Amino acid sequence: MGAHSFEANVTYDDAYVLFLDAAGYSSIVGRNPRDRAAHAFDLLRERVIARVENCARAMGCARAELWSWRGDGGFFILHDDNESVARDVALSVGDAILNEDVPGLREELADAEFAGELRLRLAVHKGPVRLPGERSASIHSPHINFAAHLEEAVPPDRLAVSGAVHRVAGPFAGRLERVGVFEEQDVYLMPAGGGAEPGKRAWLRATGLPGDVRVHAYPRRPSQHEKAQLVSAATGEVLDLGTTLNSCANRLTTTDRPALYRDAVLEFLRRGGTYRCVVLDPAGEATAIFSRLRGEPLGPKTKESLAKFARFKERHAADTERFEVHQAAEFPGMAALCADPGAHALILYSPYLLGIGPGAAALDRADMPHYFATPDSGDLHRTLDAALARATRPEVLERVL
After folding, report:
1. Can you list the residues of the chain whose pLDDT is less than 70?
2. What is the 3-state secondary structure (H, E, C) of 207-260?
C-alpha cells in the first residue's frame, strides 16, 4: 500500500496503529440478507483502504499497510522515518473516515434498503512494532494489543487516541479532548460532527466510571427459566434469601406446566444438594417495620409461603430431605438467589427499593433491578458473600421446615 513494504523481523520505532471496527455487526447481519450485509462490509473495506492509500500517497508516508481485516474491521500499520508524517496520516485518515466516508456510505446503503445504521469505532496508538514474516503469524506487541483493546472500548462513531499519541499530536492536539484513563493510559477523543454527545459523556456511557468490576445487570427479575439455570449450576447448596419468597413458593407448588423451576430444584436435591430458603419472621419486628415501608401485609404473605413450602416438601417427600426453610429476625436489605455460598458463589441479588413518603408507591419486587455477581466481580463479590453470611448466621435464624 505504501511506497515501501514492512520488512520481517525488523523493529519499527514509533509505528502508528489504526484499529477500526463496526459497532453492532451481529445486529446488522441479523437484519439484512447475507449478500446485502456482506456487500456493506465489502464497501466499507474498499473505502477505508482507499482513504489510507490516498492519504499516505499525498503525505509521502513510506509505509502504510492493512495488516489484517476480518469481516467488519481490521487494523493498519503506518510508519515513516519522519514520525510526524505517520502521525498526520493516521489522525487525518481516522477523522476523514468518521466524518466523510462513513456518512457517505450510510446514504448509499440507505438507498439500497440496508437495514440498520453502520457505525464505527476507531483507535490510534503508537509504539515500537516488530512484524513477523508471515501475515498469518501473530504479532506479539503490547502496543497492538492495547490499540485493539482501546478500540473495543471506544463509543460508536468516535476516534480515540492514546496518551502516547497525544503527547506528540502537534496540530491535532487542540482537537483532542481528554476523557479518561484506559489500561493506565490517558485517552483522548476527537470530536464527532453533527452535534454529537460531548466526548466525556460518550466515554463514560461506553466505559463506566473507573474502578468498575464485572457484573451482569437486568432491568427486572429474571424469568423462572433463567433462575432455574442458576439452580442447575449449583453443586452443593442453594441459598434463597428474601422477605416472603412468595414467587419461589408459587413456583414450587404451581399446577402450570412446564414447572421449570420446580423441576430444577428437585433435580438439584436428588443430586444431594441442599436448598435453603430464608424468609423474615412473619411475627418479627423487622417484618412489621418493612411492611409499613412497603405498604403491604408481609406477615400474612410470609405465612402463605410457609404453607406452600410445607406442601411442596410433603408432596415430594422422597426428594426434599435437604430442603430447608428458616425464619430470620433481621431484615436482609436485599433478595438473593445464591449458588454455592462462599468464595466461588454465583449470586443473583436485588437490593430492595422502597417507596418512602406520602403517596409514594413501592416498586413491585419483580420490577426491581437485579444483578448477577460472580468471583470475577472481585471486591463486590466478596462484600456480597459476606453480607449473605451475616444475614444467615445461626443466631438470627430459626428453622421451621
Report:
1. 1-4, 133-138, 194-196, 355-362
2. HCCCCCCCCEEECCCCCHHHHHHHHHHCCCEEEEECCCCHHHHHHHHCCCCCCH
Question: Which strands make up the sheet holding 11-23, listed edge to edge?
Answer: 63-69, 73-79, 11-23, 119-130, 158-162, 185-190, 177-182
Q: Is the dihedral of CA 140, 143, 149, 155 positive or negative?
A: negative
Q: Report d(CA 77, CA 16) in Å as an integer.
A: 6
**Can you tell me the distance from the alpha carbon of 314 to that of 167, in angstroms, rounded to the nearest whole number?**
72
The C-alpha cell 405498604 sits at 295
- Helix axis angle for 260-270 and 224-233, nearest 10°, is 10
Q: Could you tell me the CA-to-CA distances from 262 to 242, 248, 250, 318, 356 in Å, in that order?
A: 18, 9, 10, 15, 35
- Evaluate whether 135 touches 123 at the Cβ level (below 8 Å): no
Distance CA 394, CA 389 (A): 10
Distance (Å, rounded) from C-alpha 198 to C-alpha 395?
53
pLDDT in tens, 364-389: 888 899 999 999 999 999 999 999 99
Residue 214 makes CB contacts below 8 A (sequence gap 6+) with 374, 376, 377, 378
141 by DSSP, 3-state: which? coil
Stated length of the chain? 401
pTM for this one? 0.81
**Mean pLDDT, all residues of the chain:** 91
Buried b (16+ CB within 10 A) or exposed e, 38-60: eebbebbbebbeebbbebbeebe
Query: What residues does 188 pair with on adjacent strands?
Result: 161, 178
Q: Is 256 exposed, middle or buried (0-12, 13-18, 19+ CB in 10 A)?
A: exposed
Question: Which residues does 321 contact at the CB level (< 8 Å), separation at least 6?
Answer: 269
Instruction: Check: CB of residue 368 under 8 Å from CB of residue 350.
Output: yes
| pLDDT number for residue 111 | 81
End-to-end Cα spacing for the chain: 75
